[in-house]
Amino acid sequence: MNLLDELRELGVSVDEGVKRLGGNAAIYKKMLGTFLKMMKTYSFEPDYDNEAYDDITEKAHAIKGAAGNLSVTPLYDAYTEIVNLLRSGQPAEAREVLVNILPVQEKILNVIESSL
Amino acid sequence: MTKEYKKILIIDDSEVDREVLKTILSEEFSTLEAENGSVGVEKILKNGNSLDAILLDVSMPVMDGFGVLKRLEENRVNNIPVFLITAEATRENVANAARYHISGFIRKPYDREEVLWRLETRLGMLGRNSLSEEDIQETEKYIADLESIYRRFLKNFGQDCGHYERMADLLEILLNGYYNDLDETDQVYVKLVSKAAFFCDIGNMLLPNNFKFKSSKQDEMSNDIYGHTGAGSSIIHLNYSRHCEYFVHICGDMCAHHHERYDGNGFPHKIMGNHNTVFTQLCRLADEFDSMFYRYREHNNMQFEFVRGALVRDTGAVRPELPGLLVKCKREIDRYYNAVN
């Protein structure tokens, strides 16, 4: 299976993402690489340990934006919920959503990485 | 002839988001990028005169979008259209944005067509990249329906639609003079934009009878409630169809701002400089030219120069280069007015 088909299987709205980029699948794939690079720089555990919820919100907001623009729908939906929960003062609930999305996130990022 | 691309500065801390936007814009625009507000301000101060628009993310580290706007205000940089990029048009963002003259919001995730038509309409570009065949057909149908209603209203109130017909035709001539690289296929877009001028006073439909078709001075003095400008924009924006967004935005803007002046002394919002789109400013020029020129029994060179001179002497009414279009398009204008006689 190729990269885009594998991502479709994982719930990524590939066709929507490619359409946003004017139908250019090659650029879409290249940007998935940029997304992967970005995701590798983010870690939430230290922030949760230090209760640095503003930092978590900022990171989650950034991931939400990038995931949305690349139509990585499972991550976009999850990080949207995380941002909303953090902004309404519910960090524990946000953490629960984060814990639940991490396995899916890992699968998606592994699929991208293995195609590079 | 080398195509001139409008230059857009993208200020966003997310490399992915900048790249997506850059790709969306790549066919019609050239882009500069800045990874935070502070770098963005440096680039604006360095490149300001060559920038056609700024796309500014609200949430950024170092300096956020409102920090950038504050710095621009302090440096009196107020002539470049700015669009705020945000995932949420929260009440706070909207309230903060109202302090500055923002040309609009662009939502994340980006809707490709929406980004393109927002920029195209604001920067006076024809909708080559944002309009599909279906969009054009739906828009033409909307225009026909609206025109039927408006003509009936004008007739009922004893108003001659001739002035509005001539405005639209004159705007078509001026648009063909304004753009240097039009081909046959572009004429569809030119006709859509120029037809918008026909409706610039449609707001009179909503005014109480004793305020309808009063002179512009009356409008200037009267309460906003009785202003035909905002009323006209409201009528046009009743159409929520995605297919008609490009035309609705241009026509609504013409209704709302065709009495604004380049020097900021117009009404209702005292919009100045390039914040008023070139389409709307050309609509104003067409309005004033026809109002003065048509009334002459003969449309000869002397009358043309008299009217043109009067418009040129009214410095600050429109962008400085626009009255020159009257000279550039004189042959077509002469031919047109001789035919309508």
Summarize the structure in short.
Chain A contains seven helices and no strands. Chain A is an all-alpha fold. Chain A has a single domain, classed as Four Helix Bundle (Hemerythrin (Met), subunit A) (Up-down Bundle), CATH 1.20.120.
Write the layout of secondary structure elements.
The complex is a heterodimer of chains A (116) and B (341).
Chain A: H1 3-9, H2 14-20, H3 25-40, H4 45-49, H5 53-69, H6 73-87, H7 91-115
Helix pairs in contact in A: 5-6, 6-7
Chain B: E1 6-11, H1 15-25, E2 29-34, H2 37-47, E3 53-57, H3 65-74, E4 82-86, H4 91-98, E5 104-107, H5 112-122, H6 133-156, H7 162-178, H8 187-196, H9 216-221, H10 228-236, H11 245-257, H12 278-293, H13 301-313, H14 323-328, H15 330-340
Parallel strand pairs in B: 1-2, 1-3, 3-4, 4-5
Structure description:
The complex is a heterodimer of chains A (116) and B (341). In chain A, helix 5 (53-69) packs antiparallel against helix 6 and helix 6 (73-87) runs antiparallel to helix 7. Chain A has 116 residues and is mainly alpha-helical. Chain A has one domain (3-115): Up-down Bundle (Four Helix Bundle (Hemerythrin (Met), subunit A)). Chain A contains 7 helices and no strands. Chain B is α/β, with parallel strands linked by helices and 341 residues long. Chain B has 2 domains: 6-110, Response regulator (Rossmann fold, 3-Layer(aba) Sandwich), CATH 3.40.50; 133-340, Hypothetical protein af1432 (Orthogonal Bundle). Classes of the chains: A mainly alpha (116), B alpha/beta (341). The interface between A and B is medium-sized, with 21 and 18 residues.
